User: Fold these one by one.
Assistant:
Number 1:
Amino acid sequence: MLADFNLKEQFKVWKRAGKPIPKEYFDLGIAYWLISPDEKEYTPEYISRTFLKKEWKNSEKEIKALQVFAEKKLKEYKLEKLFWDLEMPLVDILANIESTGIQLDKNYLRSYDKELEKKLGQLTKSIYKIAGETFNINSPKQLGMVLFQKLKIDEKGVKKTRAGSISTDINTLETIRERHPIVKHVLEYRELFKLQSTYVRPLQEAADPKNRVHTHYIQTGAATGRLSSQDPNLQNIPIGTEWATKLRNAFVAEKGYQLAAFDYSQIELRVLASLSEDPKMVAAFKKGLDIHKLTAANVNNVPLEKVTPEMRRLAKTLNFGVVYGMGAFAFAKTSGLKVAEARKFIEEYFNDFQKIKIWQEMVKAQARTYGYVTNANGRRRFMLAAVSRNSWEAAEAERAAINMPVQGLAADIIKMAMIAIAKELKQCGWWQKEVRMLLTIHDELLFEIKESIIKEAAPIIRRLMESAYRLKVPVRVSEKIGSDWGSLKEIHV
């Protein structure tokens, strides 16, 4: 059996050389990540020093010693099935995804870059005119002086940095948006500057000779099991605004193909309903109700038809906040409510969804009693700080404990789906040829599918995603298809 670190990179080299991938392999970094998912790194040097108390000398003897130790711990922590059935098959799948890459329209990107440059110039002139002076808009210190010293914008509700100066981060600018006309220009400038400097220009440099961009997925990047993406990070491509959509338009399907996105609908809330077995939430998902609207109706004690868009917005914030163990102060900050109002909302929420609160308390008790929590697949995360005498540390650990079983299972579900899809597509002879898995973005999978088989392939992918793991509530996946990432349309084929 092949045992080593960072096998994904080795596999990519072998694939290019036409060398076969072994049927059984043991990625040591991933094994130690499962065993201790909150380590700073999973390099051979760090792992050897931390677990074997030895300096790494890169010998076969050391590899074997690390493998034996890992196998013992995987068995002790009941992580063998997760390692062999989920994380190891994923290594080869991610190697395929990274090798394939996603197509860029570089001509479009160059044109978009010029459009951004022009708009940034216009915004800069507008900001200088309103400010009555020129300054470095990208300098937080200079911007803060203009906003709060020269223009005297009200500082109410604005946080300060550790150095004591007033923050000019996005949250601060959103807080003061309506307090002065300059702020909306600064916010738009920030968005466009970030698009240009973080995405538009680096993406052009990152593209290969065939104009495809290849991200690198990190399996060991999050203690909950979530995958992360880097060099470039394609999980953080902006969404929602007109300018962000224009950026997504640059990611295109190869000629003769279409892009198809498959997105799990509210998967974390469905997992929460399934784990807590809360009757109201379970019933809502089984009936196909709008869960945020139902929550709003319950919390505000009004009929469903009386729920306003603002009520639903607050309920949505609360629903997802509960998944992360959000308290009254965090909810108040996120929702714009006063702390007392936020606390009342949370109390009403748990009064209506009582089994969620019972489940959360059970998870926190597990963290305090055993020093770790697990998800339904046995994935574990240590929570030793849950018994800290420091109340803030203990509260943070309890919030992480509440979130881990939910987010950890949601992460496992999409990985299970990826493995099931790869297996079926290989049997069809379509894998990474007629149907290419391009990206995994949180709860979404993006494919490039040959136009001639899209009506046949899309339902297979959707079926496999919806059946990857059986929850106590229905799992739903939405499909969007189009020639580029920015203009995908929801279609049921």
Number 2:
Amino acid sequence: MAGEREAPLIWLIAGEPSGDLIGARLISALRQRTGGNVRISGIGGEAMAEEGVDSLFPISDIAVMGLVEIIPRIPTIKRRMRETISCIEAERPDIVVSIDAPGFCYDIWKGLRGSDIPLVHYVAPTVWAWRPDRAKKFAAELDHLMALLPFEPPYFEKEGLETTFVGHPVLEGGAGRGDGKAFRNSHGIAADQKIIGVLPGSRRGEIRKLIPVFREASARVLENDPETVFVFPTVSYLKDAIREATTNWPGRTVVVATVNDKYNAFAAANAAMAASGTVSLELAMARVPHVIAYRMNRLTVTLVKILHGVHQKYANLLNILLDREVVPEFIQENCRPDLIATGVSDLLGAGEAHDRQVAAIEEALDMLRPENGTPSGTAADVVLSVLGARKRQGELNS
């Protein structure tokens, strides 16, 4: 029992499903590097629960996107912030590692001022795209930042925040190791039938906006190929909502809600239409040619442009890395069924558009790899390094 008491307590905060997966892999890497001599507490979802984390509350309480969309949820989010700060202060962890969700996490850092608990954040905010002032704000609160993209550290280092490029976690997520043949067999889909993945997002607000657009785009695709099957990889807490949304879908639909089924669906897919976000990188890992679409509340977009400005010409990370549009983007007024249907249809089969995108994907993925090892392993090394430095400082001061 003495060894367990002496093991460092690491408090993790994941505010959305993508952060939950990052957190789970980080926990695994930390245990590998410490021989299991580490304790974990915090906030997470299904993936972190599988690693033994009893979340303080469901991450669905705080996984909200958009200035307008967040307004009705503010009381709940504020209450969860207070609960998080109180719990951390009571448990006195050796380090707090927050993952993405900067809006929620920033208030946690402020609430922990003066606690002398090291604060590390995993996933740098996109200051290169909008609100560059956040780099200075992060530097004022954090001890270390872990960045997913190779060009991000200088933005924060110039503000005095030590920042490490750890690589992108999508590289070790298994998205490229699915079994497409098994998926087709289990769902009775013939080898010559086209499969289109439909991924309208992981937030209910995203889904409400994109489902009608994707539905009509699917109807247009079916005009050329009536045997096309539309597969919806989602997460368990959204499965019922997606099933309901697809009851009047044109053509056959298949809804799956486990990570393994999602990756198998990717391997089986001929093309995909997806909400802008991390899922595009997962599709890239599976070498699935795809288009992205996004439609935010008009007031949200207007407020963002007025208050913060937008400095990025692309929304998709692959396009940003390569500085050219290799993944077609249908954003806001271009988020139209006719354009999306044409974009997806162009990618079906082995034509020029398909081959060009797959080749570009390889180029972009190489840019996301850390120098050595895996992203989660590199991140674990950073966390343990910060812990070690704080321990040595404490010994010097004692």
Number 3:
Amino acid sequence: MIPSKKISIVYMVAGLSSRFGGKIKQFAQIGPNNETLIEVSMQQAIKACFNEIVFIVGEKTEEPFRQKFGNNYLKIPINYAKQEFNPNERDKPWGTVDALVSAKKIIKNNFVVCNGDDLYGEKALKAAHDFLENSSANECVSIGYELGKVIPEKGKTNRGIFKINEKGFVEEIAEIFDIEKTKLNENGLNEKNLCSMNLFGLTPQVLDLLSKKLDSFKEEHKGDRKIECLLPVELGNLIKEKKISMKLLPTNDQWFGVTNPDDEEKVRIALAKTSAGK
């Protein structure tokens, strides 16, 4: 029997949200046993059979994460990469592609990269994991969530909408801004559209391609102190250039996000119900 590939999960936890007053929102205790948000996500990842955890940290999150988790969680090894930037040249880091490229020397396995303040569901993570066990160098995967289930009842949000072909491969990731649930038709959308929640399964070879994209982006925008190089955009560009392929796997798993402080209680209640129903 051929041994399974080792698959890593990479969490982007570099920044602090001003909406949380400088607190680390991933440390909010929302689990049924007072687990932090990031611990709930890691538990989902471990159940989905990931072999390594990588944290992409920043100046203000590195030490707190190292103190809390050290080098392993439930016997799964943890490695750290640091996203840095020069505050004399920029007001913020160069974005999610830059964060991922910061971990280039650490990432040796096929990997799933995701936000550290989102809960994606064990089945969704498992689907991405299993695809990567058999993927070739430039084969990627993403998980598609139904738009109607991942936008707020009130207010506006942005989502990357997938355009896929008849074989289920992504042709385009279109970033749509200011989506309102009551006005989907005005944007040519419907609740069944599959959208990205920044959950991507990639390979080290794709990371090399993204590194080159980042170099070009920085050169083109070297005078801009705020512009960011975003992962869905650059992956979409690589797809259009036919340098990678990306399979889209729909999921029925429920996504939970913590964007604002009042989201904590909503997620806490939902997780308690889920735990009680097991």
